[in-house]
Design brief:
Layout lengths: L9 H23 L6 E12 H8 L6 E11 L3 E8 H12 L6 H29 L4 E3 L3 E6 H11 L3 E11 L2 E11 L1 H16 L4
Pfam family, one: CheC
GO molecular function, one term: hydrolase activity
Protein name: CheC, inhibitor of MCP methylation
Length: 208
């Protein structure tokens, strides 16, 4: 087991939550331009977790099917970002954004392309908020759409990059619907340490 890089203290958690909320706020504004429905996004919690935590605590049964959009990134920080939905939540979100009825062939055909667009917006806005505030830069791969268990979706990334990952609980509110989705940031160990160091420096303010 890799050693836990740093404790996600209250002060560090608050600073990171603020940066991420700026990003999801921008993402909500962009998503609102895609649909006639009013969309809001919020981040109720952020935690530093392992794959075992995700399997046993966060997602319950390891074989529950999830829908995910994944993007690799490199530069000042290197790793993988994923926007993950339970399949029922993914279907609700796609139905709202496309105005297609759930369970129709048209909705199934639109699922991947719609979620890729949503994932691209959310991940870029969240990572952009973090990197811009820390004056860092990253490059992204093209987003890909996947379905499967949480273990299947992130196991190879967790094994290759870092057992520890940032789990960002995200909630989409679209009129009367409340749709669950989560953001996972799996960074190389040095990148996670660099991110926390940057957050500490930002929280400390300018040097005297």
């Amino acid at each position: 087991m890799n050693q836990m890089p740093q404790v996600l203290t209250g002060e560090k958690r608050d600073a990171l939550t603020e940066l991420i909320n700026i990003g999801v706020g921008k993402a909500a504004g962009m998503l609102n331009q895609m649909t006639s429905h009013q969309i809001s996004l919020r981040v109720p919690s952020i935690d530093l977790v392992t794959l075992d935590d995700l399997n046993e605590v966060v997602y319950g049964r390891v074989d529950d099917r999830q829908a995910a959009v994944k993007m690799d990134f490199s530069g000042s920080f290197s790793g993988t970002a994923a926007l993950i939905f339970p399949t029922a939540s993914a279907a609700q979100l796609v139905s709202c954004l496309t105005d297609e009825e759930q369970g129709t062939p048209d909705l199934d055909a639109l699922r991947a392309v719609t979620l890729i667009e949503v994932g691209n917006i959310v991940v870029n806005c969240v990572m952009g908020s973090i990197t811009n505030m820390l004056n860092e830069h990253v490059r992204y791969s093209l987003p890909i759409y996947l379905e499967g268990s949480i273990a299947a979706l992130v196991h190879s990334d967790a094994a290759a990059l870092n057992e520890w990952m940032l789990f960002i609980k995200t909630r989409f509110s679209i009129e009367h619907l409340h749709i669950e989705g989560d953001i996972l940031l799996i960074l190389e160990t040095r990148s996670l340490d660099a991110l926390f160091a940057g957050i500490d420096k930002l929280s400390a303010g300018p040097a005297e």
